[in-house]
Amino acid sequence: MTPEWLEPLGLLNGPAAFAAIRDGLALPLQGGPIAFSLVRGPEGSILPPPEDHPALERLTRTLPDFAGIARHRARPLVMGIVNCTPDSFSGDGLGEGHAAAIARGHAMLEAGADILDIGGESTRPHAAPVTVEEEMARVLPVIRALATSAPVSIDTRNARTMAAALEAGAEIVNDVSGLRHDAAALRVVTQARCPVVLMHALTTDPRTMQRDIRYEDAAMEVARFLEARVETLERLGIPRSRIAVDPGIGFGKRARDNLELVARLPLLANIGCTILLGASRKAFIGRVTGVEEPGQRVAGSLAVALAGAANGAHILRVHDVAETVRALRMAEALAAGFEED
Fold first, then answer.
1. Which of 296, 299, 311, 210 lies closest to 259 in space, CA to CA?
2. Is 317 a catalytic residue?
3. 20 to 30 A Cα–Cα from 199, which one of 134, 231, 238, 249?
4. Residue 282 annotated in active site
């Protein structure tokens, strides 16, 4: 482990977290509501958080709202996925059906989505790229229609699409390549000074990202990659408050790597950024649960979403918004206790 980092363990939530913080038995993870009572140090030892360790300031600091979107008191924000593609892995692609995509976005907002993530190019494993012109034709009308109703992020690897989407009303850039695919992407986001989501992937090409996957420590290697990308943006003038980091579930990972990344998500708190988790309907869920059809992986997706929420995710990127919001509300009530009106 990086010597300056600690891995939060012994996580607590709800009244137990508040009581442990009050009694000096735990510390708030990025301001709470989750607390951690133990840490794993660089040598692998597990111990209470050392009072003078330099990592504690980042691990405990309260984060500002990401992209100006007010955070919920005790649960993550929900980002609804609007796939304007005919070939989405998840089975919910809408191709060039702008009206259908717009209707889906509005339905997600009514179901409780806080952000809409609109994309026009499939980046599933082995997917072939589309032209920038085709990508823009798919997403720009949808962005224009939905950006008046909610914060919108553009899910793209292409700088021209980023710029056009921001002009059309998108507020956030979400790049699965971590701004590595297109050399002009860094210039676009620095000039726009927009919030950005940086994701980890082994390669910038979906056609090769599932080849020769090797990790010695998947969680630490992903975290180090994301820290390096964040430092690059910081040097260009984008503060960590405007950056979200995404471990890239399913992008150059085996099932066991994905499970480890969810379980060790608190490690990313060392970076000091908003944490986004996008595991909805992914293939590893199908492998674990035995459900081949992506659209039928709701139960597994909800289990991962709840695990992510319990492990410090600030934003959950999901296909099934209504079910996710209900599950999060139930988990919040269970953690807080229920008092009858």
1. 311
2. yes
3. 134
4. yes
Residue 124: closest CA among 252, 295, 301 = 252
Q: In a 3-state reduction of DSSP, which class is residue 41? A: coil
How far, in Å, CA of 17 to CA of 11, rounded?
Answer: 8
Q: Which domains does the chain have, with CATH numbers?
A: 7-58 (no CATH), 77-336 (3.20.20.20)
Q: 229, 317, 326, 329: which one is catalytic?
A: 317
Residues sharing a CB contact under 8 Å with residue 94, sequence separation 6 or more, in sequence order: 82, 83, 84, 85, 86, 100, 101, 104
For every residue of 175-224, DSSP letters joined together read ETTSS-SSTTHHHHHHHHT--EEEE--S-S-TTTTTSS---SSHHHHHHH
- The overall longest dimension of the chain from CA atoms, in Å, is 58
pTM of the model: 0.94
- Cα 117 from Cα 276, distance rounded (Å): 12
Virtual CA dihedral for 61, 67, 73, 78, nearest 10 degrees?
A: -120
Q: Are 118 and 170 in contact (CB under 8 A)?
A: yes
The answer to whether the beta carbons of residues 58 and 32 sit under 8 Å apart is: no
| Among 263, 271, 267, 265, residue whose Cα is nearest residue 244 | 271
Instruction: List the catalytic residue out of 71, 138, 253, 282.
Output: 282
Mean pLDDT by 10 residues, the chain (341 residues): 88 93 96 96 91 93 96 94 73 66 95 97 75 94 96 97 98 96 96 97 74 89 97 96 97 95 98 97 96 95 98 98 97 75 46
pLDDT score of 341: 46
Is 164:140 a contact under the CB 8 Å cutoff?
A: yes
Q: How many helices (H) and strands (E) does the chain have?
A: 11, 12
The number of CA neighbours under 13 Å toward the Cβ of 124 is 19
